[in-house]
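Summary of Year 1 activities. Much of the first year was spent building the evaluation harness for sequence design. The harness presents a backbone, in tokenized form, and records the residue chosen at every position. We chose the following record to illustrate the format because it has been used consistently in internal testing since the harness was completed.
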């Protein structure tokens, strides 16, 4: 330790200019912190020759006092500047509005459908989008040469003749996984994205979303299916809604039906949305084929069940009278803003 060193430190401290509280804190640590310069001098002071102690002791104490004063002074003046009107900021100005994003219409409708079935006691199950042939087709009673397995409809991810990987074409694959894993009775809905090799048009897309449902227990009948669909349709489209069922075919259900709801725009009078029929098709359904139950190890003599499946975009199109499915995938802000349910904060 020598005089020059102390003088130099003093000069540095006097010239110190900090603009923010953070800089002041850094300066405090640099001089007065545990490993700070002033603290180091105090440690060195211990080994100073006794005859010099008096003089150095006094100077060191003055140095420490100067640093502390300077730091306190800067602390209060930087604070003052911040709140003074001369800082160039008008603190009375309104803040910039912070815009929240809004939910996508498909996600809004999916949530609405999920909420309805949750009320009926259904759980939500999810599964992989890249699936194997077994869960998408074989376990669902698709014969080996069924056209749905064809390259026309299915995007294959890998070859492999026995059980190729593919993009699921429906979320029925999640129902198969539910039957394998969950104990009975089963009551699930499976929302998710599905893929089909279709030409993109106003009514079809290669990616869309489905919600499928499955209910398996003892003594489940077609009447239960009808009641579940009717209750759903009334919750979704209004209490006046009627349903009708038309015979159909799916490999995994027997008997199978296509469900229409009464057109909630013209109330059955006939309009251009329902093409003059008064009815709108919303979903496919049926009683789970015993072969499907057995494939997943469920005793088809004791248990029965129903399944149904619907396209979320289709329900959204009916709900909001959007006549082109492609709008849901183009992410045009003008379209998406129509569904803005969020509030600005
Ligand atoms: N999985 C069928 C589809 O994708 C829909 C469906 C589900 C039909 C359940 C009947 C029962 O078209």
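For this record, the design step produced the sequence shown next.
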């Amino acid at each position: 330790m020598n005089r020059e060193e102390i003088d130099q430190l003093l000069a540095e401290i006097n010239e110190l200019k900090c603009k923010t509280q953070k800089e002041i804190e850094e300066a405090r640590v640099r001089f007065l912190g545990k490993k700070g310069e002033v603290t180091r001098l105090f440690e060195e002071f211990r080994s100073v020759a006794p005859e010099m102690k008096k003089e150095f002791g006094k100077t060191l104490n003055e140095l420490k006092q100067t640093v502390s004063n300077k730091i306190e002074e800067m602390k209060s003046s930087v604070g003052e500047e911040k709140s003074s009107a001369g800082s160039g900021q008008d603190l009375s100005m309104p803040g910039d509005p912070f815009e929240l994003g809004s939910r996508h219409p498909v996600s809004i409708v999916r949530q609405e459908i999920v909420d309805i079935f949750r009320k009926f006691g259904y759980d939500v199950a999810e599964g992989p989008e890249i699936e194997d042939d077994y869960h998408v087709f074989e376990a669902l009673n698709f014969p080996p040469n069924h056209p749905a397995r064809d390259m026309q409809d299915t995007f294959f991810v890998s070859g492999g003749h026995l059980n190729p990987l593919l993009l699921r074409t429906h979320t029925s694959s999640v129902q198969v996984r539910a039957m394998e894993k969950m104990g009975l009775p089963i009551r699930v809905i499976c929302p998710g994205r599905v893929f089909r090799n279709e030409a993109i048009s106003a009514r079809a897309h290669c990616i869309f979303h489905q919600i499928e449902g499955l209910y398996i227990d003892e003594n489940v009948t077609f009447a239960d299916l009808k009641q579940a669909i009717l209750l759903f349709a009334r919750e979704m489209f209004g209490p006046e809604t009627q349903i009708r069922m038309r015979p159909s075919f799916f490999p995994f259900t027997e008997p199978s039906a296509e469900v229409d709801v009464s057109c909630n725009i013209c109330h059955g009078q006939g309009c251009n949305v329902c093409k003059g029929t008064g009815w709108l098709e919303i979903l496919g359904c049926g009683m789970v084929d015993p072969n499907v139950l057995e494939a997943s190890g469920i005793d088809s003599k004791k248990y029965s069940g129903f399944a149904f499946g619907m396209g979320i975009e289709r329900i959204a199109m009916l709900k909001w009278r959007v006549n082109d499915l492609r709008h849901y995938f183009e992410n045009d802000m003008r379209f998406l803003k129509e569904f803005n349910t969020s509030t600005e904060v």
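The two ends are 60 Å apart (CA to CA). Quantitative recovery figures across the full test set are reported in Table 2.
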